[in-house]
Every structure is written in structure tokens, then in C-alpha cells.
Amino acid sequence: MNQIPNSLEARDVAFQLHSYTDARKHEEMGPLVIEKGEGIYVEDNSGKRYIEAMAGLWSVAVGFGEKRLVEAAARQMEKLPYYHTFAHRTHGPSVELAEKLVNMAPVPMSKAYFTNSGSEANDTAIKLIWYRSNAMGKPDKKKIISRVRGYHGVTIASASLTGLVNNHRSFDLPIANILHTSSPHYRTMKKDGETEVDFAKRCATELEDLILAEGPDTIAAFFGEPVIGAGGVVLPPEGYWEQIQPILKKYDILFVADEVICGFGRTGNMFGTETYNLQPDIMTLSKQLSSSYLPISALLVNEKVYGPVADESNKIGTFGHGYTASGHPVAAAVALENLKIIEERDLVGHVRDISPTFLKRLNSLQEHPLVIEARGIGLIGAVELAHESVKDTPGVLGGKVNASYLEKGLISRALGDTMAFCPPLIMSETQVNDMFDIAEAGINEVAKGL
């Protein structure tokens, strides 16, 4: 075995494969090692502090270093560090969290099912949908539609739902029976002279045409994020969901609202489903559910979904699906305390209060020569960048701006040439301005070097 230097950076390069990373480039440049966090800030192992403008991965709602969550984990760890929910077993935290989530849901839901990530939640939703179709004597009703630029995870089935090329390339994805309809991004997909309302109608027509071409009796479900997150923070155009939902009802197609990023206050309501008046049959939840202090996710299903699944499990003798850590007691306890904090501190109201400042500063960046679009809602947004000198190398401009941000003490995320902003919900108005001061300075610095 080769001698490895004792630094964390060298050991990381020697032993760890990273997500969403060029592995060979990582061998050359090494990692940024984050040591600790407090509030909206994180600190690296050299002592440099950053505004975490992505809340980790869209997820640390209550900020870093929240002692109540640490204490909730410690209490539950001491009382019951682990138990499962297989074969008629349960425990207090999973029961309480299931009850809490079903009662919180903005539309009638029947049951909660716990998983460990947004990817697993969406993957399980697909299995439930297929199971239900078989239970109803409709074995051909298995195809599922999602959208170009949509993001639903990285497990085999959920990565197939994801409508991003780099999540499919070299993985032999998507799998069969996963279809994609139009991206709802108005600026890039509109036709000349087409209004947002007209564009939304065309998206709905293209969805209906796909359903008819495939055969309505073969389409089981449609997956959609209220606001597309990792696909570039794409907001639905005016009238979009009002056009899409009736088509799903017309052809008896289940609607899955992927609330993994939008849920628990991000859009200015507890759920994106409320912001856009959606009526989903299934909601998938994660990230801000526990502020990602521990891995946990959930599906909420309505009676239309649960009833046939329950009947089929009775016919077969079991619902043959589950994860070792489904409803993990420590993760569930932390999620319950996290939801208490969100409610007690009225963080959803706080998002509504500071959103005007967030959106004003975000939209002001659209005046910059490098910015071709600013878009956002609540406390999530993005600026898309472009410049003639790098038009043939997508992602280079985003990489340059991202590097400038890091040097100046700001962690964003470059989604190609789109810079995303999704800070902890606790961010103050002053901190919003601090964040965008750095964001503007970073874009200015890159612009001067082009």
C-alpha cells in the first residue's frame, strides 16, 4: 500500500469517489473540506467562513448548529437508537411523524411511507404505482411521464425520471416505460410572439399528444416538481399547472408532486403544492423534512393509491418492499423537532417577509451584461449566465463565477451556467443583502476577465 499523506484532502483523494464530480479533475485539485457550521454559515478546515447560499443541498431549513436537533437525536439515540417498521413492528417517532405529515398535507392524504432520500421516495412511488396498476387489473398501465429538465433523483428508476442528459449518459438510462414531455422553461422553449399563457397551453397540448400517442390506458402517472430545482430553478409559466392537471384527470393518470426541494417553506408556503394549487395523489418529501441533519424522506399517498395497494398486499400476503432504515427512530425524532422549529418560529411567514428583498436583489442581477435571466420565488432563485466568448463551452462561465464566489466566501451551485441560490430559511434581510453583494461582485470579477 502506498504511503498516503495525513491531510484530510489527500486521504479524500486517495479513498473517496464523489458525487457530481469529475473524478480525474478531483485527483488534481482535491476537495474543499467543511469543518463546522453555524446559522447560515459554514467554515472550512483553514478557518475560512462562507455564506452557505445553497443550504447544503437545498435542505438546511433551520440553519447549521441547531442545538434542539442535536438534543433530539441524542435523546432518541439513548432511548431507542434503532428499530424497523417491517412485519407489524413500529415505534413512537415513526408513528408521530406519519401522523404529523398526513395532517400537514395540503390535500387529503391517507398514509405516509418512510424512505431515506428523495431518490428512494420517488423510486418507491414508481413501485407503488406499478403495484397499484396490477392490483386494479391494468397490467399495461405502467408508463410514467416526467419532464425535460425535471429532477427526481439518481436511483435507477428515479434517475430515469430525471430529465437531464448527464444523469443518463453512460448509465444506460432511462429504463423502459419512462417518458419525457416538454420542459416548462418559457425563455428557452417559447416560440416567437408566444405569451406565457400560450406557451403553457402548448406544453399541455404536447403532454396530451404524448398520452394519446402512447395510449391513455398505458400511462399510469405524471411526476412534476412544483418548481424545478436542480434542473435550473425553473418556475412554471403562467397558467401551466391549471392546464396540466385537467389532462391528468381526464385520462385517469396519477399525479406525483415531487416536493423534495419545495416542501416545508421554500416557496413561501409550507408546500409548493399550496403555492400552485396542485391536487397530487402522491407527494414525495425529503431535505427540509429534517433539515438534512439525518437522512429521511417520505411519500404521502391518498386513498385512491393506498386502497388498491392494501388490497393487493392482502391478496398476496405481504407488501414486499422496505428499507432497513425506513422511519428510523432517530431520524424521525429529528424530523419531528425540525418541523416544530419551522412552525414555532414561523419560518414560512419569515420566508414571505424576506422574499421581496431576496427577489429584488436577485432580479437586479438581470441588469448585468453576463446575466440573461433571473428567476425565483420565495427563497429559491437563480441567475443564468451567457457570454459570446464561451458560448461553445457550456458550464465554463458558471464554473468561473462559482470559483469567484468561493474565493469571496459564498457557496452557490453552478447548474451548468446557472447560479442557484437556496439559502437556509432563517436568513435575515441583512444576510440576504450580504449574499447578493458577494454574488454581484463575483459576476463583475469574471466579466472583467473575459
Keywords:
450 residues, Aspartate Aminotransferase, domain 1, 7-stranded mixed β-sheet, 4-stranded mixed β-sheet, 16 helices
How does this structure look, described?
- With 450 residues, the protein is of the alpha/beta class.
- The protein is built from 16 helices and 15 strands.
- The chain has helices at 8-15, 23-29, 55-58, 67-79, 92-104, 118-135, 156-161, 186-189, 196-214, 240-250, 272-275, 303-316, 329-344, 347-364, 396-408, 429-449, and strands at residues 34-38, 41-44, 49-52, 111-115, 143-147, 178-181, 219-224, 254-258, 282-285, 297-301, 371-377, 380-385, 410-411, 413-415, 418-421.
- Strands 4-10-9-8-7-5-6 form a seven-stranded mixed beta sheet, sandwiched between helices. Strands 1-2-3-13 form a four-stranded mixed beta sheet. A four-stranded antiparallel beta sheet has the order 11-12-15-14, covered by helices on one side.
- A hairpin with a 2-residue loop joins strand 11 and strand 12.
- The radius of gyration is 22 Å and the shape is globular.
- The mean pLDDT is 97.
- This is Aspartate aminotransferase family protein.
- It comes from Roseibium limicola.
- InterPro entries: Aminotrans_3, Aminotrans_3_PPA_site, PyrdxlP-dep_Trfase, PyrdxlP-dep_Trfase_major, PyrdxlP-dep_Trfase_small.
